[in-house]
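Supplementary Methods S3. Input chains for the assembly prediction are listed below.
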Amino acid sequence: MSVPRFWRKQIARYNLVGTHCKQCGEYFYPPRNMCPSCRREGEIEDFKFSGQGEVVTYTVIHAAAEGFEGQTPYVLAIVQLEEGPRLTTQIVGDAKDMSIGMKVSPVFRKLGQSGDRGMIYYGTKFVPA
Amino acid sequence: METNQNGVNMSVGIVSYGAYIPRYRIKIEDIARVWGDDADILKAGLMVNEKSVPDVDEDAATIAVEAARSAVNRAGIDAQRVGAVYTGSESHPYAVKPTSTIVAEAVGATPVLTAADFEFACKAGTAAVQTCMGLVASGMIDLGLAIGSDVAQGAPGDALEYTAAAGGVAFIIGNRESELTAIIEDTYSFTTDTPDFWRREGMPYPEHGGRFTGEPGYFKHVTNAAKGLMQKINTKPDDYDYAVFHQPNGKFPSRVASMLGFSKEQIKPGLVVPRLGNTYSGSCMMGIAATLDQAKPGDRIFATAFGSGAGSDAFSITVTDKIEEIRNSAPKVEELLADPVYVDYAKYARHKGKIRLA
Amino acid sequence: MREVAIIGVKNTIFGEQWDRSFRDLVVEAGVGAVKDAGITGEKIDSMFVGNMSGGQFVEQEHIGALIADYSGLAKNLHIPSTRVEAACASGGLALRQGIYSVASGMDDIVIAAGVEKMTDVPSAKASSALAAAADREWEGIMGATFPGLYAMIARMHMHKYGTTSEQLASAAVKNHQNGQFNPIAQYKNKITIESVLNSIMVADPLHIFDCSPITDGASAVILAPADIAHEYTDTPIYVKGTGQASDTLALHDRRDITTLDASVVAGKRAYEMARMGPEDIDLVEVHDCFTIAEICAIEDLGFAKKGEGGKVTFDGETAIGGRIPVNTSGGLKACGHPVGATGVKQAIEIVEQLRGEAGKRQVDGAEIGMTHNVGGSGATAVVHIFSRNR
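Predicted structure tokens for the full assembly:
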């Protein structure tokens, strides 16, 4: 991912900053600028999530995506934050410890890098709480 | 309010602290097996049994962030008050581009602050502490965040590989008396140009002078800094409940403690190296953090860091009542050391990037 | 709105075609379909081509013009040619755009084609190109792969409904059974549940044999107004219904991880247009990019109750000769999955079945068939219903 493209949403990735619609009360992470329920009537503001959540579903990836070969096997999961929204993330830890419904909390980790010379991408993964 | 000999307000100290240690460990036996060394002799000589290993997605920046967040959370600090972030490390992920900006952003301290990365071998973290002390004491900033964090490098097969570990510690330095968890009464440094250990630009592993790192490096600087500080503030080893010395292994701090007149009991709480290894820039600060984890209000701690190159920073610290209030609000060093996951040399080599993918 | 019929079809061989290029494939399919319809190039009013990622697979964009050019329809005839993209649903959408253009009266004779040349890049690069169908910024950056996303659907399906790995595997086994009778299929070997379960794990619980392969191939159909279809062929196949629906790009934003709402809604729209229900359908080609995708598809389209797709498949109800034959072509799993072509190939399988030309995989008495083509992990779905009777 290009430098400006990553940097643009860097705070959202570092600190789980998403958005909130004041009109209907729904929370969004990843952030959305348009509320899917209220659309033009929605009022969007930034919102920092607590980071507490639980595993909705997960998999253990053995055949890695390009750039993730050094991490196999890694646990990919959909996590539901306590405020409601769901996100795709990695769970740090042993595959055998994972379960649906498991409580998780956020950690700061390296997501990847653009080769040896390019930018290093940091962001949020989760660990069993 | 105390003032030092230069008339500057020295009532500064540690408002909060946080530590981070990766969950993986490798045993000395597993490294010795690869190189055909005798593990028992190494363990006895180094007084190190195992060392921490970073996860595949951990580096000095992620460790610095985890330690800094732990410090911010432990005392419930409003991160916007932090006016300076200095991260000491000899394994900054970028050669050029600060680790400290990553930390500042990830703890929510941006954008009104100053930040820079420090490097002074294993004492870059305490150099950051001293810098923050100065800025806080002068009134330039409200709070300063000083971090020592490393994913320490040791070349495969080199003696350093048995000890080079991963971990980090963050101190939040301030001077509001009601907020201080530990008052730093004074600090004293002893610095010379001594090439006992270095890593050249672009090189993956450090070089060192073998036994030359001992007498002219570690022992000369630590003893001079420690004696200098005690002389300056008129204290003696008996005045302290605890002592912490840079711990590249277990032997050096034990020997320097006895050379200076500190007892085994005084250094015991802070001597985490046998189960952790040398976290380089985090080493001395980890010892202070482990000691704060169990110190009582009024306890005094004497700490001396050492960085190759070479220099030592000594600190005289008194713990306040505040410690009881914040101690349990973040993971203690003992908790971070507990329940490790052991890896073999192959996995360790992969985690450390010693196996290069195409 | 005019009714539309398919009057000509052609698939290339599906598989690893080292000696044939992107343009070789699509020209073969296009010319073959034109011949099958018994028309000439001058008759063609416009063409629509489904292609997911010429840019990443062969570093070629401007696919519409390329194909018109190499089909001999550009330089003298200047026939309009439009590329359609919706990831793995690109082919189904190209067909739908062709149907729109004939139904509207703007065009009479239209080519709807699909093509993908996937083996000119290493498989890691191919996987990465396919992963662009997911949300690059919020799924891909975390290391999500396509098998990974469907594996999370599978895990949830197992957790919620007790679906088993054996039941998932049975979809692959059945599709290989069908594929051996399809001359164009990439894989014509039979496999067993044991061999699926013993194949290497890609993304737990999905094994490599739960996954569709990387494939080169192209497919094309010729569309005409139903009123004049008999001028070209004795066996026109009529488009009775078409439905398309969108859902959230990322899997994590879906209402229910185990239901592809886009499939449900696209199916409902197609059923309503055709004035039919699942009970009217004699056979269906569903988007089995992974075994779990076939299980979800037959549930979402009404051929099995939610949660029973695995059991129904394992019990043989979706085999040829079963209650509702699914993926007689071999599906994406055995026939292969050149992503831009798949949606058109599905329609061709139904055309061949309804014409009674499907040989050993023929479903006896098939009169009405359905296709179901999905983009990404379910952000786009397109469903068509075809009949041999007007």
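The domain at 4-122+214-231 of chain C is CATH 3.40.47.10 (Peroxisomal Thiolase; Chain A, domain 1). The longest strand of chain C covers residues 237-246.
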